[in-house]
């Protein structure tokens, strides 16, 4: 065992010691109210210059286009703003890449939610350009990573996860304007909390299994500690941060939770690893009724399923009780901040969906196989049913 904060994290003896320790992160992280106006100066701090292609959703353009124009004008840089098409698909990535070529862009800036960032990041990687990440909501931990989730853009399965692309470099700059975050719908922040809460549990599982992280190396103790800190800060300050978001003010709890859901969670998942929670998310995406749910809302339920898997696989009664107690703790926490804890709250009412979710979650290339014990579709289905039952018991539904 190695101690990570107050948690005992088992490191499997089968861990491939021949792999190096690998920790990755952005060159620079900047967070604060109104920092959008300093975008060009912060880019210059890491050696970037124009021309700049900004890829942004419509809400981000309406809110920030003037600030971008003023910042780049002061730096003397040519820039162009193009609208994000809504899906991080191969077609969208190709369109962004073509815009960058047309402008002879020296850097691509992605602004908006996770999909806008993923598509912009993938286009920058395709063209060999630096990438700047400017999240305008905190609904996922995508901003700091080198990972793009690619979704299907056409056909009956539009919006399903097609593949993951892990690029060679992390963002050159991550700039988070907390005033913009404070003015976003609180549901997005709650979803970011749901995504962030999976970080420690998935990191702990991947470390226990001795699995390589997303950058091909072993997890550092630093990554595990950041993942633990992410969970602890989030639990302590989530309710107050959501209250600040409802009031559209930037205060200390909001700043702490934004840092936890963006920086700590991003560094933790990428440099430690993913496990069952995100695989269950991908299974949930296969159910059309969940398409109106946010990524972090589905990951939150996936975290409950992962802890149920751990409870069912526990070697003794003490470990089983500890895992079950943790699930109950998270069910209460998620319920308090409005995250789903039952299948019904995710829009799923057909019991047959459980088998579909479980089969998708255990595909050969899924992160669920980073768990420190064998996982099957049957064991996932049983964990889904158990997590749902616990959630219904807690909520009286």
Structure report:
It is a single chain. With 397 residues, this protein is an alpha/beta fold. Among the domains are: 154 residues, Rossmann fold (3-Layer(aba) Sandwich); 123 residues, Up-down Bundle (Dehydroquinate synthase-like, alpha domain). The protein is 52% helix and 12% strand. The chain has 13 helices and 10 strands. A 6-stranded parallel sheet has the order 3-10-7-6-4-5, with helices on both faces. Strands 1-2 form a two-stranded antiparallel ribbon. Helix 3 crosses helix 4 and helix 6 packs parallel to helix 8. The radius of gyration is 20 Å and the shape is globular.
Summarize the structure.
The chain is built from 13 helices and ten strands. By secondary structure, the protein is α/β, with parallel strands linked by helices.
Total helices: the number is 13
What's the CATH topology label of the domain at 29-182? Rossmann fold
SSE pattern, N- to C-terminal: EEEHEHEHEHEEEEHHHHHHHHH
Q: pLDDT average, as an integer?
A: 91
Query: Helices and strands: which structural class?
Result: alpha/beta
At the first level of CATH, the class of the domain at 29-182 is Alpha Beta
Are there runs of 5+ residues with pLDDT below 50, and where?
A: 1-15
Task: Give, in spatial order, the strands making up the sheet with the most strands.
Answer: 3-10-7-6-4-5
Strand residues, percent: 5-15%
Helix content: 40-55%
| Radius of gyration of CA atoms, rounded to a whole number | 20 Å
CATH architecture of the domain at 29-182: 3-Layer(aba) Sandwich
Gap from first CA to last CA: 39 Å
Sheet with most strands: 6 strands, parallel
Shape: globular
Number of strands: 10
